[in-house]
Amino acid sequence: MDKQQKVDHSGSAPMAFQGFRRGAVLFGRALTLRCPHCGGRGILASWFKLAPTCPRCHLRPERGESDYFLGGMMFNIALAEAVFVMVLITTLWVSWPRVPWSLLQYGAPAAMVLAPILLYPFSKLIWLVFDLMLRPVVPNDFAPPAGVR
Q1: From residue 126, how far is each of 11, 54, 90 by CA, in Å?
Q2: Integer distance in angstroms from the first to the last C-alpha of the chain?
């Protein structure tokens, strides 16, 4: 009995985990603010905006979806909350029983406002890493190089 492969006509690849080694490489590139796919520089147009395409491999970071930014927003909030919890637990652990409550009272809200701003490009690229790990690139994910139509 022949097994038929399902054809995805939407232009995106089927979900398939790429492996831990590949994931570590992708995460390393994202944490250095480089294109997770090729490692090229210039994936950020500014601190708050990704370039339309990677200048080196021409990958479209939004991967052709209008609501792609929602995943990055989710990671931004999750990373900010994780940083807050780690700082709180570390402060309590190190300073117990003389916890600087006034520092925590004023410092924690300030950190919660600053953390999403500081972590914004990282969260967008980490979201792209998860997407690349689960949904490998297909030709539709790349823009033609400048001057080529």
Answers
A1: 23, 15, 25
A2: 44
